[in-house]
Amino acid sequence: MSTLRLRVACRTSEAEGICSYELVATDGTPLPPFTAGAHIDVHLGGGIVRQYSLCNAPHETHRYLIGVLREPASRGGSRAMHERIVEGAELEVSEPRNHFGLAEGPHHSVLFAGGIGITPLLAMAEHLHARNLPFTLHYSVRGGARAAFRRRLEAAPFASRVRLHIDDEGTGLDVPAALAACPPGTHVYVCGPAGYIDHVLATARALGWSDDRLHREYFGAAPAVAEGGERAFDVRIASSGRTYTIPAGRTVVQVLADHGVDVPVSCEQGVCGTCLTRVLDGVPEHHDLYQTEEEQAANDQFTPCCSRAKSALLVLDL
């Protein structure tokens, strides 16, 4: 995967625990284009690679803008961004990729953002406004001090389409009411904590919304443990025929790396899809949040960074 060398032109405190980073090419050249909902992989050294959504307007080619929440239980990524990455620092990043794109068509869009989940939806709002397409943006935070990019939203030309919901101020989001206000054919886009996303999607489905109009992106996955605890299983590499045992407490990616089998990874939580691998035989035990329920039911691919096996053996297309 090709990478870019970018410089931090500006670092800004956007809210409590959230900073934005404006990234530009070190030689001043235009950056590869991106579409609303896209993200980049940021390489932070020591094998740490983290994904951050681009939140500037997609028509901009001179910069990428990302927002980073400092996680109290950081696995190293957000802590490194907040403690080490300052203005003038250089970063290696991937070209943009998009697993959360807008559906084509003139339909209405309703955007639901929870906390730091506002970042990809900012780019969507910018794109929809530029195309003169109808949309509403619902942005939910626990307290006013946590509302990142608030000044930008209040000054935006689409400010009248933004609804800010602050739990501590008694203006929390009423999801059924928000969905009821949408015209027929509306598409939902939701990003934020897993519980927030699940609530929005479950409410929409209960109201009769079809899955083809529901789009989501998770930022993190809660640890998933199979009923009865993790069990050991084997994986066989189709190209070499070699078989490796995956013990409880270790992932497929970790064991394969020990034996020189490289599987590209990024989030290591089953969120991004970077490590998605084809399964030729066996039944996976899916712990990812990247695939849809239908894709998981097909059992022909899985995320070896977190998923395991129901069968004694998985044969992988590696």
TrEMBL record:
It comes from the Bacteria. Keywords: 2Fe-2S, Flavoprotein, Iron, Iron-sulfur, Metal-binding, Oxidoreductase. Residues 233-318 form the 2Fe-2S ferredoxin-type domain. PROSITE patterns: 2FE2S_FER_1 (PS00197), 2FE2S_FER_2 (PS51085), FAD_FR (PS51384). SUPFAM superfamilies: 2Fe-2S ferredoxin-like, Ferredoxin reductase-like, C-terminal NADP-linked domain, Riboflavin synthase domain-like. GO terms for molecular function: 2 iron, 2 sulfur cluster binding; metal ion binding; oxidoreductase activity. This is Oxidoreductase. It comes from Pseudoduganella lutea. The lineage of its organism: Bacteria, Pseudomonadati, Pseudomonadota, Betaproteobacteria, Burkholderiales.
